[in-house]
Amino acid sequence: MNITHTRLMGALFLGALFICGGFISINQSTVNDPDQTQAESIEGAWELTQIRGESTEAMAIRMVKILSDGNFMFAFFNDETQQFFSAGGGKYTYKDGMYTEMIEFHTITPSIIGKKVKFNAEFKNDKWYHTGTVEGEPLNEVFRRIDKGKGKEHVGAWEIFRLSNDAGKMVPQQKNLETMKLLSGTRFQWATWNSKKGDFVGTGGGTYTIEDGYYTENIEFFSPDSLRVGQSITFGCEIKGGTWHHEEYAGSRGLPINEIWVKVE
């Protein structure tokens, strides 16, 4: 059954809180947990199954979170109705049962941008049990693992370095904007936000495949243009070291798309 808009927003508010050129690398050792073994053990894609004891299926929503190389992103959406509800992301650490998120963007509660949110976490039989208190309210979530996040060259966190403009010229990302894409074993999510203010610009995600030099995204959610949900977009791709070249000759606006991403380390 569907829940009311007010009830849905309340659930999302609480649930979302915790929640191929040159060779270039970006060092994030200052934000990653010192014990990389523990942090890497939880990497991959996770789907929320319960919020405060109520199933997400009964609420007619999905929430998928990807953890990769010390970065996380999530989105609440309904792929059947093409509705996008919310998204957030930033950095995370995990050590000795304590999971901490450093919020860099958040569409429902921008007041928590720049803050750390800590939770007790237990991982058992490919399930993630999340407990804590947010804004004075108890919060309990359960996730199920979709996939693991290591073992393939393309899996990880990628940051846009250069992209083609409307004239086809390769240019840097706009000042103060950050675009990052996280890839788990089977899923992707990208997001763009203002790295100074935390203002949200857009996001999209779903499943992907890589085969014979082609990278295909199967879009399950997209903001701000929901019409792209259900589409599949194929790029020619080449990964060399820490650089990923992305090309699509019939872009979303009928223009060629050429992107260079660098792996975040």
Structural class: mainly beta
Overall mean confidence score, pLDDT: 81
Count of runs of 4 or more consecutive helical residues? 2
The CATH topology of the largest domain turns out to be Lipocalin
Tally of discrete structural domains: 2
Which descriptor suits the 3D outline? globular
Q: What integer value in Å does the Rg equal? A: 18 Å
Number of strands: 18
Q: What topology, given as strand order, has the largest sheet?
A: 1-3-4-5-6-7-8-9
What is the helix content?
under 10%
**Biggest sheet, in brief?**
8 strands, antiparallel, barrel
Structural description of this entry:
With 265 residues, the protein is mainly β. The protein has two domains: 144 residues, Beta Barrel (Lipocalin); 108 residues, Beta Barrel (Lipocalin), CATH 2.40.128. It is built from two helices and 18 strands. The strands form two sheets. An eight-stranded antiparallel barrel has the order 1-3-4-5-6-7-8-9. An eight-stranded antiparallel barrel has the order 10-12-13-14-15-16-17-18. A hairpin with a 2-residue loop joins strand 14 and strand 15. The longest helix is centred in the first third of the chain and has 13 residues. The chain is globular, with a radius of gyration of 18 Å. The termini are far apart. The N terminus is likely disordered.
